[in-house]
Amino acid sequence: MSSVEQELREPPVLPGEVTRDEVRIGWLRQQIGRLRKRMPLRRRLVGGAAHGLMSASAALIAYMPTQALNLREGFWSAITAIAVVQTEFRATRTMARDQFLGAATGGLIGLGVLSTVGQDLVAYAVAVILSLTACWLLNVASAGRLAGITATIILLVPHVGTAQQMFGSRLLEVGWGVTVAIAVGWVATRMMRHPEDGA
């Protein structure tokens, strides 16, 4: 039986329900957390400092051009870079995908709700619900929080100019922050490789 056939035979998972794989992943996260706590102090210090250095570098590299271009909310690039940078490159790529897809999804849905329903608390709640639901439907549930945050920014944060301009600016800033974080993560991964790891 193919994995698609097996997936079709399994009952659908509703929000709030936990699958067997999610239980296993949760258990593995707990084990990793326990191992991390058992690491010697010096190793935790070095790991934390390395992650801090990567995050600060990415944030500065992402933020400085926004100032030169007189972008008023360039801090979103720095925030995004910090949120995306991880000590493992694979994790950085996953976070980058989530940040960008979340910003795009929440922004588009926020704009759609704003233009069709208007700006009030009910519209805001609808935008958040639709943003998270869309991420689940697109099979990137991990991007849902970021989609909800971007919908919040579009519908609740006061801004100069149109909502479309704010969305475009936000997507540009997030995209730039994601790009910088991926580049910094890639460079850091190459620099931290040991010669015996093979190139």
Structure description:
With 199 residues, the chain is mostly helical. The protein is 76% helix and 0% strand. It is built from eight helices and no strands. The chain has helices spanning 3-9, 20-38, 41-68, 75-84, 89-116, 121-137, 144-156, 163-192. It starts with a helix and ends in a 7-residue tail after the last helix. 32% of the residues are buried.
Summarize this structure as a short list of keywords or feature phrases.
about 200 residues; mainly alpha; about 75% helix
In a few lines, what is going on in this structure?
With 199 residues, the protein is mainly α.
Topology:
Layout: H1 3-9, H2 20-38, H3 41-68, H4 75-84, H5 89-116, H6 121-137, H7 144-156, H8 163-192
Q: Structural class, please?
A: mainly alpha
Largest sheet: none
- Please estimate the helix content: over 70%
Radius of gyration: 20 Å
Distance between the ends: 40 Å
Q: How many separate helices? A: 8
Please trace the helix and strand order, writing H or E for each element. HHHHHHHH
Instruction: Catalogue the unreliable spans.
Output: none
